[in-house]
Sequence to fold (316 residues):
Amino acid sequence: MENLSNYTFDEITVGQTAEYRKQITERDIVLFAEVSGDVNPLHLDAEFAAGTDFGERIAHGMLTGALISAALALALPGPGTVYLGQSLRFRRPVKIGDEITVQLEVVEKREDKGFVTLECRALNQDDKAVVTGTAEVMAPREKLSLPRPTLPTVTVDG
Amino acid sequence: MENLSNYTFDEITVGQTAEYRKQITERDIVLFAEVSGDVNPLHLDAEFAAGTDFGERIAHGMLTGALISAALALALPGPGTVYLGQSLRFRRPVKIGDEITVQLEVVEKREDKGFVTLECRALNQDDKAVVTGTAEVMAPREKLSLPRPTLPTVTVDG
Fold:
């Protein structure tokens, strides 16, 4: 499997972009509920969700936030990035089966501190923005290429 | 187990507070890596993390963001809340075993739209702020008391 690699502060240019994709599954919603503790029935109970304005179960908004943070950590700048801040606007619901594409674009570099600002957009398969926001990170100074850690097997029963 | 209940827009007052607590375990970090895809070795590889400025494995910053979103969804306002926006500043690392307390405080209500703004602070067991920010939500209009959904069993192997 390919290594994890990064872009150093010096390599990063304003206008540089990266993408990160993930399909949201029912399993993801269960795992996010497990790790956050947010067992809201809007996410977990199909019958309850059918009676809401959303009409069906939706993913936790912050699950898409987690995909944005993963895009920063894995793609741009990648490993060695220090996460300083993030703003998020939750614009549309994410439903089970949606294909989410996170798009990152570098909009500012601050040479003095090594800070980089990125515009973040998470789009669904219809190219509609589901979450947008801005990230501020301290970009890595050192070039890294690291083996991708293997996760333990995670099983969801039922 | 107690039901999930909420505070409606009319019940919410400026200055109202709520708390939500969770200890961060190694298992949580694995689950967050699984659901987000962020397999950065800073979170997963003790040997790699020991060589960084952090000195040991740390939790994903957005995992604490997920706890803030859970506090809004479960405690204040609770079920029926629509999440509109969130800002986050990542101030200190969260390490395995840290006891995180999310504190929410209502700072503004907008009668016309039903919007509520809350200041959010996640503190560690030493009362140091690890993540701070501001949430904007649309508070529920309808009083709800719902059975707490039971999650499928999630197992991490290894």
User: Anything to note?
Assistant: Chain B has a mean pLDDT of 96. The first strand of chain B starts at residue 4 and ends at 5.
